[in-house]
Amino acid sequence: MIRTLLIIAAAAVVGYAFSLSLDFFEALYDFSRHHESWQLDEIFGTAVIMTVILLGVAIWRVVQLRQEMAAKDTAQREAQRLARHDVLTGLPNRRRLFEIFDNHVITARDAGRRLAVLIIDLDRFKPVNDLHGHQMGDEVLCVVADRLTRLAAGRGVVARFGGDEFAALLEYQEDTDELLRIVHKIVHELALPIRVRGLHLRIGASVGVALYPDDGEAADVLLRNADIAMYHVKAEDRGSFHFFKAGMDSALLERIELEQQMDEALVKREIVPYLQPVVDLKTGGIVGFEMLARWLHPQKGVLLPDRFIAMAEDSGKLTRMTLALLEQAMEAAASWPSSFTLSINLAPVQLVDPALPSQLLDVLARAGFAPHRLEVELTETALVERMDELKVVLAALRKAGIRVALDDFGTGYSGLYHLRELHLDTLKIDRSFIAGMLESEDRQAIVEAVLHLSQALGIDTTAEGIEDLALGEKLAELGCQLGQGFYYSEPLPLEAVDDLIGRHWPVRASA
């Protein structure tokens, strides 16, 4: 088409130039008839020169026109490519994935293979942008894109849908574990550290999987179902994968609904702190409280943290929620004895935020609550994620006087190295070792070993999940200082805490 247009344009320009030459020659001839000094050979010479000039201009214009049309064609092709590909990673985008879906269905069918649709959502990507900037985040996304492309090579195609969400069309052999293995590899590979500018960043991913044609035959249906499966992973076990099952829609809709309501709930103080007492196992006296989150939902009743904490982290609202809960707890703490402590649970992503110490100290200063009365609890999961950054933040907390506790000790990845390096103040023995300790010699031996270790290191110990008096007395006999559990009290709303302090349990003398 372009070649034809160029030929027509060239012919037109040359014809126009020849026409001008004839007109010019005719004008010269008429001029010479009235001016005898002009000779015929001069007239022809001038006409030839003018014709050559005009033809040269015409050829130059044809070449220029060809270049302009070629540049326009290149620009159009590039625009079409950009419209179908992600600018940052070069991967196909959502539009392109829809365009090639049918071809992949046909290719898989002809090869006697099946087709799976995956939605891959990064778990801890937002803090990378917040803490290190969007340029660092872009580099991380490019590394993720490279890893996914390598894993999908020979099996299908990977696309980026925007933000931290990717998708994939993967062929696999039916009646084998091929698909399961590749999904496992995706989760494993994206959990490995990403080295960018000297930093080792851990993000991880949650993957939802839908199968063609079992879970749908159209691309939009399969992507929607894979998205639903991915949200189930986010809600239940991030850093894993889930295959779509019919009936998941209702859970997804509830999650979306709660996420949309969270901002308003924080403003209205519908998300509130509940407090569970921590007691001295020798005296039974209250020495402090652990703060736990509850959502007093107007329609759904009291929601426990497993319904909304992960969602708050994914949406970047977790620190805002934690500080709001701490401020509410501080209002209640104004009437406590000055020796009482308060412990709060923090997620790994919060514990690598350099702004955390100053944020906590601001809340404590406004409430007049001494920093040494606050204890932050980290889970063992945090010990394998960005250890260097974690050590910096914990050092800043200790320097400010805030205590540090390791929660659920014995259920994760901590070892003697972590106990030595992090200079912990408290170990909290997980309830799975405490429950049934009196009936199990093995469990009691584990608890005794933890207590001996903590005593040797000068670390306090708190036993979780104490359900009866005999268990509390045995733990005290073994040397455990503190305990908490339903035997002493379930988590209470703020308005019930003063009554508990004043009437039900003796209070240890103020320091």
UniProtKB/TrEMBL annotation:
PROSITE patterns: EAL, GGDEF. Gene3D superfamilies: 3.30.70.270, EAL domain. Residues 255-505 form the EAL domain. InterPro entries: Biofilm_reg_signaling, EAL_dom, EAL_sf, GGDEF_dom, Nucleotide_cyclase, Rev_trsase/Diguanyl_cyclase. The chain crosses the membrane at residues 43-63. Residues 113-246 form the GGDEF domain. Keywords: Membrane, Transmembrane, Transmembrane helix. This is Diguanylate cyclase (GGDEF)-like protein. It comes from Rhodopseudomonas julia.
